[in-house]
Design brief:
single chain, 231 residues, alpha+beta, 6 helices
C-alpha cells in the first residue's frame, strides 16, 4: 500500500506547467516530497488524539478514529530491542519513531512509569515490580525494565518512520531526466493521502519557483482540508 512517486511528480509538473509557472527538478522534488510525507505522518498522532476526545462515530466507513488507525497500521512494527548492561535500547530498531507497548514473555505487558513514580515504588516493597507485573522507565530511547532480572524475551510495539521517498532517474541523450522505477522509492502513506501529498508539494514548489499564486492556492486547499477533517 503506497502512493506512486512517479505519478505524484508528473501530477505536480503538470499543474506547474499549465500556465508556464515553472519547474522543479527531481532532486528538489525528492527533498520537498520527504518533507511533506513526514509532516502528514506526524500529524496522524495529533489528529488521533483529537478524534479520541470526540464522541465515536460507529459508521463503518466514516469512523475517523478507525480511518486514522488504518493509516498508522502501515507503520506499526513489533521487534526485540537490544539489551545492553542495564537497559534495552530502541535505537537498534529499524526506523524507530515512537514507542508503543513493552511486552515480556509474549503475554505480559509492562507498565510505563515516570521517574517520580519509580522513586515512590522503590520506597514501597509491597508494590515492587515482579516478572508477572513488570514496570519500565523510558528515557532517551532507553527502556529500563524492572525487575532487573528481565534481560531477555522482551519485545516492543512501535511506530517506524516512513521510508525516504526517491524519484530516481538517469540522464538521457538530450540531458532529460528519465524515470528509473527500479531505484525509486514510493511514498509510504495510505493511498487516500495522494491529494494532500500533491497539494503539500505544490505549496513548497511555489516557494522554490517564487510564485505566490501557487502558494496561496495550495495554502487555501490545505487549510480547507484541515477544517473539514476536524469539523
Amino acid at each position: 500500500m503506497a502512493i506512486n512517486v512517479d505519478l505524484v511528480y508528473k501530477t505536480v509538473l503538470l499543474i506547474l506547467n499549465q500556465q508556464q509557472r515553472g519547474y522543479i527538478t527531481p532532486d528538489e522534488f525528492n527533498k520537498v516530497g520527504n518533507q511533506v510525507q513526514q509532516g502528514i505522518f506526524e500529524k496522524y498522532m495529533s489528529d488521533l488524539n483529537q478524534q479520541l476526545r470526540i464522541p465515536e462515530n460507529d459508521n463503518e466507513y466514516a469512523n475517523r478514529v478507525k480511518n486514522l488507525e488504518e493509516k498508522l497500521d502501515i507503520f506499526k512494527r513489533i521487534a526485540a530491542p537490544t539489551f545492553s548492561t542495564d537497559h534495552f535500547t530502541t535505537a537498534s530498531l529499524s526506523n524507530f519513531y515512537r514507542l508503543g507497548t513493552v511486552i515480556y514473555n509474549d503475554t505480559i505487558e509492562a507498565q510505563m512509569v515516570e521517574r517520580n513514580e519509580w522513586y515512590k515504588i522503590k520506597k514501597a516493597p509491597l508494590v515492587a515490580p515482579t516478572k508477572k507485573q513488570p514496570v519500565f522507565l523510558y528515557e532517551e530511547n532507553k527502556i529500563y525494565l524492572y525487575p532487573t532480572t528481565i534481560t531477555t524475551d522482551v519485545q516492543v510495539s512501535y511506530l517506524k518512520q516512513p521510508a525516504m521517498i526517491n524519484w530516481a532517474y538517469t540522464i538521457g541523450g538530450l540531458g532529460q531526466y528519465i524515470y528509473d522505477a527500479s531505484s525509486s522509492v514510493n511514498f509510504e502513506l495510505h493511498p487516500s493521502e495522494q491529494v494532500d501529498v500533491v497539494t503539500g508539494i505544490l505549496l513548497y514548489s511555489g516557494v522554490i519557483i517564487q510564485d505566490p499564486t501557487i502558494i496561496q492556492v495550495a495554502s487555501q486547499k490545505i487549510q480547507q482540508e484541515d477544517i473539514n477533517e476536524k469539523s
